[in-house]
Description:
Blueprint: E1 2-5, H1 11-18, H2 29-37, E2 40-44, E3 49-51, E4 59-65, E5 68-72, E6 81-86, E7 91-92, H3 94-99, E8 106-109, E9 113-119, H4 120-129, H5 131-149, H6 166-169, H7 174-180, E10 182-188, E11 191-196, H8 202-211, E12 216-221, H9 224-233, H10 251-254, H11 273-282, E13 286-290, E14 296-299, E15 302-305, H12 314-322, H13 327-336, E16 338-345, E17 349-358, E18 361-369, H14 376-379, H15 383-389, E19 394-399, H16 406-420, E20 424-429, E21 442-447, H17 455-462, E22 469-472, H18 478-489, E23 493-498, H19 503-512, H20 516-529, E24 530-540, E25 546-554, H21 557-564, H22 571-577, H23 586-595, H24 601-607, H25 611-617
Parallel strand pairs: 11-12, 19-23, 19-24, 20-21, 20-22, 22-23
Antiparallel strand pairs: 1-2, 2-9, 3-8, 4-7, 4-9, 5-6, 5-8, 10-11, 13-14, 13-18, 14-15, 16-17, 17-18, 24-25
Amino acid sequence: MKLQPITPDLVPKLVQAFGQHPLLRLCDARTLSDLATQSVLAHFMDNEPIYAQGDRADAWLIVLRGTAAVRVTPEGMTDAFDVDRAKPVDMVGDFDALMGIPRRLSVIALEQVLALQAPVAMLHELFQRSAAFGLAYAQQVGAKFLQEARRVPLPYYDVAKSPMTSEVVNLLPPQFIDRQRVIPVASQGNRLLLGCVDELTAHVMSSARDYLPGVELIPVRIDGAAFNYAMQNLVSFESKTEEPATGQGGAKASGVMPSAPASTKKYVAPKLDPLLKRMVAEGASDLHLSGNHRPRWRIDGEMREIADAKVLTETQVYEIIESGMPERNRKQFLEENDSDFAYAVPDVARFRCNVFRDHNGIGSVMRVIPSKILTLEQLGLPEGVRRMCDNPKGLVLVTGPTGSGKSTTLAAMIDYINRNRRSHIITLEDPIEFVHKSQRSLVNQREVGPHTQSFGRALRAALREDPDIVLVGEMRDKETIALALETANTGHLVFGTLHTSTAISTVDRIIDVFPPEQQAQIRTVVAEVIKGVVSQTLLRRKGGGRIAALEVLIGSHAVSNLIREGKNHQIFNIMLTAKNQGNQMLNDQLEALVRDGKAEYDEALMKALDKPELAKRFGKEYFEK
Length: 625
């Protein structure tokens, strides 16, 4: 900190700046002039503490230029949390100085900050000279008190009567549990009780919902002793990032030939790992690195700068991400200017990564892959989705735009089969996201690149690998779609994904990818094998987080006949009239989410494909813009 006396020529400028503050402008010009002359200017460098929590409050400040982070370190913890930002003309440290108590918070300069540092006596003088200032200050403090008083206390969860279990506790990443002091305590169906030691913020709730999409979270209060016991005895910091199984008796097990290195190999990345660990602890869903910018992450759906991070050069971005890239992806990036891969930080989480070139040089995005595979029940998926998994053969498709939760839904479906059927499951992915541990089924997970050259090649090989269930991560082209249909038509249950938005458009997409002279034959094959289509979209949940809305088509003789006859447009009528078979329209669920208070009407309307029909359900009219 560098202190600078205030010269007479600066006083009018400071008085003008004070006039922008809602409280200080209530004081007369003489009082504001005295405030300026009795103070000093304080210069702070980037990342320099303005004051620290616990310090003696011997002054108060007014920020004049720059931005500072307001942070708190909860009792019993070592990590600090950002709770606010101090911007120009904000007063900081005034309440502590007024009350004569140690600093309750820390304030750190996020860039070069210029502030007016005033003595405590001058704060007392403001109250004595201006009744309007004193009244407004008291009203501001009272408003904060009322805001706190309106908060409904959380119900208390007695862990002595209903003990926590390791299985439930570890539904959230341990780093997130440790930093945010929230922990899953009990689960029933898709409802989960979330134990909170401290006050639950909207950010923490939203981040927990992002880790547990579809799960209904119910906050409860637990005491610190119960939380500490769970951290010491139930929370698992052991690695959940084991490599995909290569199969009993496979090359890896026999030792005859080592398997190709998976993209989740645990590379040592000393510059990348700390960022990813902090990302998980803070509850961010994505981390963005870009040349000539500070790192950013997405929290509660919003992009935010990492306030205490430095601006990265193009070289620094590449150095950070390159240390975690498999050799295959390094080569691909240098040749093609972008690459996708998965990366694991042991004991923390797995991440889906993309690196690319742009006008800033090099950029990268890393997304957290939840370490726990949620069950169909925890996701709250309808009964019809479970019945699709019970089919011995056929084709099941999960569709929707990028980022709509297709991978989460498919992982839950494969997990259901893995836990309930004795079968052989092969997954073909690019890259592998959720790792399935063989349970009643044997699970082999193959990744395009390290394990196979393409989806098509892997599908042809799968027919010789005695599978019962095959998951095709993405049906990108005619060859892959044709092989998936052939696999489903030869007695296997095939799961696949497409980027279509409705069940009907999904059927159309499969048929239209083939030339006209083949479409009659393809319609016949699709009619024979189709067992179900789940089309989904994500919308913002009230209170933070996201929630899925699904359209479900259940395969039936009537649906097959319409596909065979080329009358796909009439499938809509079957979905309307045969809801008792498990069919579900998207607007049905959007309406239910709004009426249940889980989503806003405007958000549901934005996601609806038939907007006038949804508006009509709520007694409103919709006009195309």
